[in-house]
Prior knowledge:
Elements: H1 11-21, E1 36-40, E2 43-47, H2 58-76, H3 81-93, E3 97-104, E4 107-113, E5 121-126, E6 133-136, E7 149-156, E8 162-169, E9 176-181, E10 201-202, E11 208-213, E12 231-236, E13 247-250, E14 265-270, E15 276-282, E16 291-296, E17 308-311, E18 317-323, E19 326-331, E20 339-344, E21 354-357, E22 363-370, E23 373-380, E24 383-389, E25 397-399, E26 406-413, E27 416-424, E28 431-435, E29 443-444, E30 458-466, E31 472-480, E32 491-494, H4 511-515, E33 520-524, H5 534-538, H6 545-561, E34 570-575, H7 578-587, E35 595-599, H8 618-621, H9 627-636, E36 650-656, H10 665-677, E37 684-689, H11 700-717
Parallel strand pairs: 32-33, 32-34, 34-35, 35-36, 36-37
Antiparallel strand pairs: 1-2, 3-4, 4-5, 5-6, 7-8, 8-9, 10-11, 11-12, 12-13, 14-15, 15-16, 16-17, 18-19, 19-20, 20-21, 22-23, 23-24, 24-25, 26-27, 27-28, 28-29, 30-31, 31-33
Amino acid sequence: MKRNKPLIAVTLLSCFAASSASWSAEHPPVAPVRPVTTDYFGTPVVDDYRYMENLKDPEVQAWMRQQDDYTRRALDAIPGRDALARRVEALMSGDLRRTDFTRRGHRLFYQTAAAGENLLKLAYRDGVNGEEHVLVDPAKLSTDSTRHFALDWYAPSWDGRYVAYGVSEGGSEQSVLHVIDVQTGHQLSESIDRTSSCVVSWRSDNRSFFYLRYPKVGPNTPLAQSEYNAVAHLHVLGQNADGDGDAAVFGKGVSPKLDVPDGQAGYVLVSPDSPYAVAVANHNMDNNPNTFYVVRLADIHGADTPWKKIASPEDGVVDVQLHGDRLYALTGKDASRFKVVSAPLAHPNLAHADVVVPEGQNVIDSFALGSDGIYLAERAGATFELHRTGFDGKDDQTIPLPFAGAIRDLAPDAKLPGVMLELRGWVKSPRELAYAPGANGATDTGLIPPSKTESDDLEARETFATGYDGTRIPVSIISKKGITRDGTHPTIIYGYGSYGLSMDPSYQPAWRAWFEQGGIMTVVHMRGGGEYGDAWHRAGQKLWKINTMFDFLAGAHYMIDQGYTQSQYLVANGRSAGGIVMGGALTIDPGLFRVVLDDVGVSDTLRFETEPNGPPNVPEMGSASNEAGFHGLYTMSAYDHIHNGTPYPAVMFTTGANDPRVSPWHMLKMTARVQAATSSGHPVLLRVDYDAGHGIGSSVAQTADRYADEWAFSLWQVGAPGFQPKAK
């Protein structure tokens, strides 16, 4: 996260009035109002734009195109926009990138992109200092310049000979599974569709694997069931190249003898040194408590596999690892900051499991097993600690790290001692570290070179805002060093606060372009995230989601109270489930922010569970099918709390036409509603990327273009010199 340039000081004040006056008299296309009233447990809710949920409707598509055209004209009229876009892309594309490392003996697999390249490739090398070999380059898969492919996931066999991987088109995440022979570089015949977010687990023969696949969608399949209840299959290389005919071994409906709960996916986990397999019924493909089963590998026989349930969501298990005849589990049961327990796989009674790593002051973020012991990434305030302990929980040691930051992607090898990991900070670019038992600490492998944008002119400050109920809300402030607290700095307040996901330090080269305009980045760590463990997460769920929204506002008020900025320079930003927070920024206190940037956001939560990715999110958000769930969803539904004649801030809603996670209609409906309701005269724009989805798999150029649009729009609205369109 770095940037650099002259600070915008008092000159912003004189330019502020001009920003509104220069807004074009051109008006956006108006959407027809066709009210639909639904009665929820005695509360009538009117939806003026329900028809927009039919994204195949030519009228809806035409309005969507017209809105995006209108947005493009408005953004192209901002004088500094193109220069900002060039700067952002230069910052984002100037470094060699490597990430997502997996160890298979001495062989390392990872994703990489050279400086100037748009998309990550799959590569490997033999040893840290070995020659890099590119296996899959998605940039070479497209024959149409208007569409692109992206690498979604990969999974190497235990001997490193084969790699299964998924690619999808246009940011859709609709993965197709392929297999490549690392030794020859040849593609095998496998091409298996419906493998989004796939979990591939190779068997020890290195010629077969378990994988998940979504069911075929028929003409009468409800949208809410179209990407749900994926089933685990067994595939043997060279057989059933398209996956049809592969035996289903676990999942909803596979066997009448086994009760598997509804959820997004069922998949199987194995380890090369264990004779057992664990199956997971995952409600939302995340690391929240799920349902787990176990069986001996030798007893897996299609639908007749005798899976034994060992944990339900009530047991709080969020992750499991296999080591020989024992199961290791990370659980929040009676341990809000989590603990690691162990039990024999032959009789894994987790209620009476051995506590290997008890709950402590730190939050256990993740754990992984090497041949020599257990490695743990623990949250210690704003940064992380790396710990190692024996399989019996003895001889715990803290492993020194080269700088304070967040640990990502613990990468051990079950057959080898030690671990690799990625460490990153707010002002320190990622490094790939390695630790070997007996060493003085984790050391830099050099596999990820420092960013060329990294310098000592930035600083990150960790502090606390005070919530409405007295709760201390962590706030991270990233800016140029020595920034003056004169209340004039354009300040982006970013928030998410859902699913127990934490907003950990993450170096973003593009941010330097914002800092160069005198800007500040602020990240609010709200309830609903995982910064303080399971209790912090649950304090921002369902009926308590209001806490998340108020915590975000508390972070914004802190920045004003501390003299960094004022309301006329405040920009709220969130994406995906963070759209709920953006809705709160719009509706709870419309005058607090000058700009709201809502990226692929969830906005109409009452209707969320009707879309393809809706049902998996019910455990997090709640369901409108019961009264308590309705009240929670209604409270957090910004779409249902937009009121006519309200002076709303300037808003930009962004979406990807191929978004599989949050349907584009959320942003369409919000755009139509806010445009019709606002009395401020500030612009309300809808930005659509027709070659993107949720942002996952987007190219560097696409991401840089979105940053430039949003930041130029924000700088225009806060009155920044050089970003004011000429008055018409």
